[in-house]
Amino acid sequence: MNMVVMLSPGFPREMAYFTRALASVGATVVGIGDQPPHDLLDAARGALAHYEHVPLADENAVLAALHGLARHMAFDRVECLWEPYMLLAARVRESFGLPGMTVAQTVPFRDKERMKQVLDAAGIRTPHHTSATTVAQVWEAAERIGYPIIVKPVSGAGSADTYRVDSAEQLADVLPTLRHVPEVSVEEFVDGEELTFDTVCADGEILFENVMWYRPRPLQNRLHEWISPVSIVLRDLSVPDLQAGREMGVRVLDALGFRTGFTHMEWYRTASGEAVFGEIAARPPGARVVDLMNYACDGDLYVAWAEAVLHGRLGAPLEKRYNAGSIFKRAHGLGVITGVAGLDALRSAYGDDVVLVDLLAVGEPRRDWRASVVGDGWVVVRHHELARVVEMTERFAAELHLYAE
Ligand SMILES: Nc1ncnc2c1ncn2[C@@H]1O[C@H](COP(=O)(O)OP(=O)(O)OP(=O)(O)O)[C@@H](O)[C@H]1O
Ligand SMILES: [Mg+2]
The whole model's pTM is what? Predict the structure, then answer.
């Protein structure tokens, strides 16, 4: 009953921890992925009963490899937590007649227009939206929705090719830069705070729930290099400000028929307190958020996911003990890291509330801040009181500096 095929068991990096978790709760895990076997992290390699090195972009090769293996072993489940291959996982399930998400159930999690159509039909408040495949359709949508608008790819990630447009003049400037995007969503721009609603579910039941607060909004982080992006996993989900979003989250999962696994939803909270849907994925959040949840709970969400998938329940309840905040740093200057300033003072001010400092070392080359969410390093702080975490994240954002030249 416990033979699990894991697509891309070692990439991106946190997949290795999910793979290891599956094995740790009793699964026999067969991996299939793009990475040469020697590139797999030890966490993944040590957990795999077998690994097939096959390009995941080649669906026929994946199916052929798995049907070959199926002559010797019977698969019970297929898992994939990496966005680009969620549909492939669904096709493999259908090809083997396995339980889990079908292609039809997966599409609304991948296509932002289909997603919002399903949710509109369920009466959920999405931003006013249309999809467009031509320049004329974008103009028409902008006219109808009214400025400011957001224009973004229907299957985007990491805020890539995403623009806020305030006027027709700006739209004329932005359209040429979107030429390589085959289909865009044009949306009403929603003003407000941006938060997540994340879950681990089994058989349609929410076993773990998480709400995280982005500071500032992700699109700002993508536009301005000087910002240190902050995310705070919130301890107390019972506060009034979060209820509209949590209720929306439950209805969204229901409308999409989600049953088992990790989900990651983003929503906006307007000044009037209204919750507006942002987007949802049938996978864990990226950007080290699973680790941040672990710091907030003193628990292991990698294992919790594996238990949900394999056994339909958690081995032990997960409770948030802390608000946990992460701060991603971007160095000043280009080239290699030459120095760090401000760390000692912040460490002595906050002591044990600073639980992780993982910065590039002097001499290491800077990372591309648009391509890497972690940037040139990250810090995690935590405390029972939210105000204290807000203060710590603001000070680490403003007073910790990395320099490069
Ligand atoms: N309708 C909207 N109103 C206001 N801001 C928006 C809207 N749509 C997108 N944004 C901004 O752009 C960001 C990226 O958009 P979205 O989350 O849809 O795409 P993404 O690229 O999949 O994001 P992710 O970074 O989560 O992968 C959002 O986090 C938000 O800051
Ligand atoms: Mg997003």
Answer: 0.96
The predicted structure's pLDDT at residue 1: 65
Work out the average pLDDT over 157-178: 94
Question: Are 376 and 367 in contact, with CB atoms under 8 Å apart?
Answer: yes
Residues in the chain: 405
Q: 222 CB under 6 A from ligand 1? A: no
Instruction: Decide whether any atom of ligand 1 lies within 6 Å of the 153 Cβ.
Output: no
Q: Work out whether the CA dihedral 171, 181, 106, 231 comes out positive or negative.
A: negative
List pLDDT tens digits, range 232-280.
999 999 999 999 999 999 999 999 999 999 999 999 999 999 999 999 9
Alpha-carbon distance 139 to 132, whole Å?
9
Helix or strand run (H / E) with residue 250:
helix 243-256
- How far is it, in rounded angstroms, from Cα 27 to Cα 21? 9
Atom of ligand 1 nearest to the CA of 217: 31
Q: Quote the strand ranges of 108-246, DSSP E.
A: 129-132, 149-153, 163-165, 184-188, 193-202, 205-210, 212-215, 230-233
Is 199 a pocket residue for ligand 1 (Cβ < 6 Å)? no
